[in-house]
Write a structure and sequence with these properties.
This protein has 226 residues and is α+β, with helices and mostly antiparallel strands. 43% of the residues lie in helices and 15% in strands. This is DUF2461 domain-containing protein.
């Protein structure tokens, strides 16, 4: 097993130390160690992207900066105590994205639609208003549900403007995000098979992405809008 296909315990040990010493002096002193771990994590994320491209089309992989934007935050600690990155699917015809968050005791995978624009959100809601049966069938598929559990995401309290709060599928229509999250134990993340588990999880979400891509590239008559 090559180094770039595993997350080592050293990565988590560094993140724990950073959490306990979240200040610029400590970080500058330990910057060479940070760079070493960041480089290994980036290689891991690049391998995840390579695996994804065997069964999907990824336009961009982004490893997020360790530096926090503290301008509008009460928490003024300058650094994140995690590594995280995202993988964006290719072009207007493929929708959705993948996310990986590495933090001791708080690691997780996520996938779906975090911040759909108002046009996409309206289109999804209209589809669900018209007929949510296919959507429910897909999100309740055994493999998907075993790995990812329930659909999550922020939602409005009653009903979006213009939608009936008594609609039988209002539980879906009122969502503002359409996201799946899989929490991970440290043991899972540090396992040699973790990279395969990440890929297996992302593969399992594909029927959901296929359906959502179909919805977001057609009108309510099923005609392409691309």
């Amino acid at each position: 097993m090559s180094d770039n296909t595993t997350i080592t315990n050293g990565v988590f040990e560094f993140l724990t130390e950073l959490k306990n010493n979240n200040n610029r002096d400590w970080f500058e002193t330990n910057k060479p160690t940070f760079k070493k771990h960041q480089s290994k994590v980036k290689l891991f994320f690049e391998m995840v992207k390579e695996n994804l491209n065997h069964h999907d089309e990824i336009e961009k992989m982004k490893l997020f900066r360790i530096y926090r934007d503290v301008r509008f935050s009460k928490d003024k600690t300058p650094y994140k105590s995690h590594f995280a990155g995202s993988f964006s699917r290719l072009g207007a015809h493929l929708r959705g994205g993948y996310y990986l968050h590495l933090k001791p005791g708080e690691s997780f995978l996520a996938t779906g639609f975090w911040a759909p624009n108002k046009e996409d959100l309206f289109r999804i809601r209209k589809e669900l208003e018209m007929d949510a049966s296919k959507f429910r069938e897909v999100i309740n598929k055994k493999e998907l549900k075993t790995i990812w559990g329930e659909l999550t995401g922020d939602e409005v309290k009653t009903a979006p403007k213009g939608f009936d709060k008594e609609h039988p599928d209002i539980d879906l229509i009122r969502k503002k995000q359409f996201v799946f999250v899989r929490k991970l134990s440290d043991k899972e993340v540090l396992s040699p098979s973790f990279i395969d588990e990440v890929d297996k999880s992302y593969k399992a979400i594909r029927p959901y992405f296929d359906l959502m891509s179909d919805i977001l590239t057609t009108n309510l008559n099923g005609e392409s809008i691309l």
